[in-house]
Structure formats: C-alpha cells, structure tokens
Amino acid sequence: MAPTDRSLWLGGAAVATGAAVAGGVMLVTVGVDKAFHEHWSEDIHDHGVPGGIAHGTADVASGSCKTVWGAMKGLGSGIASVF
Measured between alpha carbons, how far is residue 76 from residues 15, 39, 63 in Å? Predict the structure, then answer.
C-alpha cells in the first residue's frame, strides 16, 4: 500500500518538529554550560559591569550557536552518508 500525500506531509512535519525541539534543547543545554564557564569577572573587570555582562552574554550566545550549528551539520552529514 503506497503512502498518501497526507501521511508524507505529516511525517515530514513530525521530523521537522523533532529537529526543532532537539535543537532548542541543545541550545539551552550548551548555553547553560557556556554561561557557567564564562570568565564573568574578567569581562566585568575589562569592560565595567554593564559592558562586562553584555560582553559575556555575547560570548555565551556566540559560542552556543556555533557549537549547536556544528553538531547539527555533523548530524546532517552523518545521516546523508547513510543514504
């Protein structure tokens, strides 16, 4: 029995939703880890309190996005190599 167009659409939507949720969970988890390891006192010493907090937050966001993006690219390459 051939799949219907509706079942293919629902399957694709489920995969996309799962990928978005997994990416979000990874981003939060990695963000917490990066925030824990950020050198906040050094940032505040170098840039003052508001500037140090802004600088540290930018470092955390940038590092988190780069880490998750690299993981997703690696996952995509791995899946593509199977097919």
Answer: 13, 32, 20
d(CA 79, CA 73): 10
Q: Give the whole-angstrom CA distance, residue 46 versus residue 37.
A: 17
Distance, in Å, from the CA atom of 34 to the CA atom of 42, rounded to the nearest integer, reads 15
Tell me the pTM. 0.76
Provide CB contacts within 8 A for 77, sequence distance 6+. none
Per-residue pLDDT of the chain (83 residues; tens, 9 = 90+): 455 666 667 777 888 888 889 889 999 999 999 999 999 999 999 999 999 999 999 999 999 999 999 998 998 888 888 87
Q: How many CB atoms lie within 10 A of CB 34?
A: 19
